[in-house]
């Protein structure tokens, strides 16, 4: 039986950089989830009888929301739902299932790197038929719909048992509960030389993968340990927990500190990696050397041809605007296009679909390719392993050789978290107000070449996305970028991205913060960070 339930709209269901993210108690309000899901269905057309993929990162409130989504998909006329066993699907695995099954779209439940639990974060994201996050046109339509929605449809059905694989029925709709890992692992076997990686491991190569008690645990155990023969225990914190063990599942130098410390120690293994809550980010650390995500993108692009899936070469590289220009010089050398997009994976979809780019990346530890339409943490780890297996050099050697060839982009991101929203907005407004007067001025001994608020013209569909971050470029190629996060759930987070290009190999071994000291001071002078936020220093430096 299908119920049409009357509801009243919420005014705050605006999707951010990556879907709708709020605290769990916000999602637990009456009809909050139902309103949002119905608004998704109301904003897209043509799904009758079609397939919807549903899965999440396993965080608190995942299972309840999946049951609701299944009943609403049934009532709204979907023909089939594919859901991961236990409600688990990593974001890239969900993207793959959408593509592989020619699904209409997918609902991905995650707040990614944000903490989980009854008082922590939850999120709902809609992905379209290419497997990627809905473009802005659709997220704007969903938001508009949430502001006036007055009813939703839900089937009056018992809960589906998510812990058994198989095909079940939910009204007229079929529900397929699938193993979350199998299809994804098969795709990885096509892209990478598993024999070469197995040989690497059997030669004594050791790695540690920290799944941070998030979604990638089962994927890492199956792929790294079972299929590639890495030592048992290579995947650590491999059991997904609803609260990620009380930690932030954010693979950065703050939250993956244990891994970092291990990799910097005397008995470090050869390779360290981690992924985030929903499995789309990656952290890469060699013995004694941290690889910035921006460098990792450049290195992967420069070496991708060593993996079978990319032996034909790359069509192009895309990176988000705040990501360093390290990849630009690789694209130049390869003679392929380089695309600079706003922050957020949804902007890469068109470039990948149109065959303009093969590899994409963001400074926030996201890298991926045209194999799916999301960034993909384990994919990046496997591409690194494939490269290491072929080159048989240490990660440090590979990185320093890369810098010697292309120059080094010193890079850091400073986050000021939990800033008062009005203060953060005032800072950005003041910054925008002075953009016109910055060029030619001198700050901390640096001369401003250009300053603007980044706007993106999508070369495929001609859409324009304005106000995507303020960038101040200095003479000589250094720059600072300022933007406010679109994934937080309380207050505002100011992100300051700092970059300096150093072509000279004899100056490639500086400590990053020291190498960027003048730019860090200039950023504060230009934006008045301390003055506006009252913060003497950033809360997180990556
Ligand atoms: C952050 C990152 C961005 C990433 C987004 C989603 O967004 O900066 O690069 O695409 O998170 O990643 P923001 O607006 O907070 O800067 V994830 O792993 O949350 O799906
Ligand atoms: Co994520």
Essential attributes:
Alpha-D-Glucose-1,6-Bisphosphate, Chain A, domain 3; 7-stranded mixed sheet; 7-stranded antiparallel sheet; 18 helices; 27 strands; binds alpha-D-glucose-1-phosphate-6-vanadate; binds cobalt (II) ion
Quick overview:
With 542 residues, this protein is of the alpha/beta class. The longest helix is centred in the C-terminal third of the chain and has 15 residues, at 377-391.
Verbal overview:
The protein is α/β, with parallel strands linked by helices. It folds into three domains: 2-180, Alpha-D-Glucose-1,6-Bisphosphate, Chain A, domain 3 (3-Layer(aba) Sandwich), CATH 3.40.120.10; 184-406, Alpha-D-Glucose-1,6-Bisphosphate, Chain A, domain 3 (3-Layer(aba) Sandwich); 408-541, TATA-Binding Protein, CATH 3.30.310. Helix content is 32%, strand content 25%. The protein has a seven-stranded mixed beta sheet, sandwiched between helices. Strands 20-21-24-25-26-19-27 form a seven-stranded antiparallel beta sheet. The chain has a five-stranded mixed beta sheet with strand order 11-10-12-13-14. α2 (32-43) packs across α3 (62-75) and α2 (32-43) packs across α5. The model has no long low-confidence stretch (mean pLDDT 97). The structure holds alpha-D-glucose-1-phosphate-6-vanadate (VG1) and cobalt (II) ion. The site of alpha-D-glucose-1-phosphate-6-vanadate (VG1) has 18 residues, from loops. Cobalt (II) ion binds at residues 112-113, 276-278, 280-281.
């Amino acid at each position: 039986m299908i119920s049409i339930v009357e509801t009243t709209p919420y005014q705050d269901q605006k999707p951010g950089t990556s879907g709708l993210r709020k605290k769990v108690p916000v999602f637990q309000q009456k009809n909050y989830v139902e309103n949002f899901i119905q608004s998704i269905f109301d904003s897209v057309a043509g799904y009758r009888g079609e397939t919807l993929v549903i899965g999440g990162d396993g965080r608190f409130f995942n299972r309840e929301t999946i049951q609701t989504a299944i009943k609403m998909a049934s009532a709204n006329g979907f023909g089939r739902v594919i859901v991961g066993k236990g409600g688990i699907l990593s974001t890239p695995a969900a993207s793959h299932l959408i593509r592989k099954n020619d699904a209409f779209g997918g609902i991905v439940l995650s707040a990614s790197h944000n903490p989980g639990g009854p008082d922590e974060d939850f999120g709902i994201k809609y992905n379209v038929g290419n497997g990627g996050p809905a473009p802005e046109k659709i997220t704007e339509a969903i938001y508009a719909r949430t502001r006036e929605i007055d009813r939703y449809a839900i089937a009056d059905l018992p809960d589906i048992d998510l812990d058994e694989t198989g095909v079940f029925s939910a009204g007229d709709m079929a529900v397929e509960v699938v193993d979350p890992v199998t299809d994804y692992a098969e795709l990885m076997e096509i892209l990478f030389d598993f024999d070469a990686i197995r040989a690497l491991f059997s030669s004594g190569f050791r790695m540690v993968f920290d799944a941070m008690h998030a979604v990638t645990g089962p994927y890492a155990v199956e792929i790294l340990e079972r299929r590639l023969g890495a030592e048992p225990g290579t995947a650590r914190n491999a059991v997904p927990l609803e609260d990620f063990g009380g930690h932030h599942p954010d693979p950065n130098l703050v939250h993956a500190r244990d891994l970092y410390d291990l990799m910097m120690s005397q008995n470090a293994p050869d390779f360290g990696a981690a992924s985030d809550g929903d499995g789309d980010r990656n952290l890469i650390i060699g013995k004694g050397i941290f690889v910035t995500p921006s460098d990792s993108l450049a290195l992967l692009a420069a070496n991708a041809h060593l993996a079978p899936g990319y032996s034909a070469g790359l069509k192009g590289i895309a990176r988000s605007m705040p990501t360093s220009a390290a990849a630009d010089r690789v694209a130049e050398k390869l003679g392929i296009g380089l695309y600079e997009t706003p922050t957020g994976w949804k902007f890469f979809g068109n470039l990948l679909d149109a065959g303009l780019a093969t590899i994409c990346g963001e400074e926030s530890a996201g890298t991926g390719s045209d194999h799916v339409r999301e960034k993909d943490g384990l994919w990046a780890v496997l591409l690194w392993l494939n490269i290491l297996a072929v080159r048989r050099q240490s990660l440090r050697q590979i990185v320093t050789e890369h810098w010697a060839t292309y120059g080094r982009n010193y890079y850091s991101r400073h986050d000021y978290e939990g800033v008062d929203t009005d203060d953060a907005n005032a800072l950005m407004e003041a910054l925008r107000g002075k953009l016109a007067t910055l060029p030619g001025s001198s700050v901390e001994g640096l001369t401003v070449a250009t300053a603007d608020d980044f706007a993106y013209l999508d070369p495929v569909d001609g859409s324009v996305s304005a106000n995507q971050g303020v960038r101040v470029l200095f003479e000589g190629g250094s720059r600072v970028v300022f933007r406010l996060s679109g994934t937080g759930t309380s207050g505002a987070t100011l992100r300051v991205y700092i970059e300096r290009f150093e072509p000279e190999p004899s100056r490639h071994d500086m400590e990053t913060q020291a190498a960027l000291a003048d730019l860090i001071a200039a950023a504060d002078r230009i934006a008045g960070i301390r003055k506006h936020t009252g913060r003497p220093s950033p809360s997180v430096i990556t």
